[in-house]
């Protein structure tokens, strides 16, 4: 019984991986469409609610405003192309009073430093940015999206809005182009990973484990059955053989020796 339960669990895990594969393929289709879409004003993409959802990820948005350097946040524990470092997020205040978080770029960590030694200054005056929209980052029960002493671990629009006192879009923007130009010290960000991932092969592994469990159950059941049959045959053979041996003895031997 336990083996059948184990096989059932393996099958369900395999089906779960196939569902994840379907979800990933659907997300990849949305990402490809968004990458190919022409640039558009941010409100035209996300609407009046200002929420960057899954359907908006990697869309190219255009915004114009002024950086608020006094509310700049250093993002810690970031990695780009397997290099540890920091990202610098600065609110860009638009003409309508709303603000969008702009991830200005990546600064690789130098040695064991806990904070970037130099942060490029923001351009003064009006700035025009063309960049990619990203969803707010969430970390479950962690509070990494709440800025603390000018640093944070997650870029989260609602959490930043409370801490910074700004009317922020729920999401953020990574810089592709900026006028005036972005500081060359900033490293660029890689594009999205558009592939099917390992889900199909994980599903095959779980299905294989299920077959292995059932195959093992059948094999050992047959072995036990053969053992029982051999034991039964042996007992049946002992009876006739003993009777035959007794019949072959002389009558005197069976009756006992004469006095």
UniProtKB/TrEMBL annotation:
<protein>
    <recommendedName>
        <fullName>SURF1-like protein</fullName>
    </recommendedName>
</protein>
<dbReference type="Pfam" id="PF02104">
    <property type="entry name" value="SURF1"/>
</dbReference>
<feature type="compositionally biased region" description="Low complexity">
    <location>
        <begin position="228"/>
        <end position="244"/>
    </location>
</feature>
<keyword id="KW-0472">Membrane</keyword>
<comment type="similarity">
    <text>Belongs to the SURF1 family.</text>
</comment>
<feature type="region of interest" description="Disordered">
    <location>
        <begin position="223"/>
        <end position="259"/>
    </location>
</feature>
<dbReference type="GO" id="GO:0005886">
    <property type="term" value="C:plasma membrane"/>
</dbReference>
<keyword id="KW-0812">Transmembrane</keyword>
<keyword id="KW-1133">Transmembrane helix</keyword>
<keyword id="KW-1003">Cell membrane</keyword>
<feature type="transmembrane region" description="Helical">
    <location>
        <begin position="200"/>
        <end position="220"/>
    </location>
</feature>
<dbReference type="InterPro" id="IPR045214">
    <property type="entry name" value="Surf1/Surf4"/>
</dbReference>
<dbReference type="InterPro" id="IPR002994">
    <property type="entry name" value="Surf1/Shy1"/>
</dbReference>
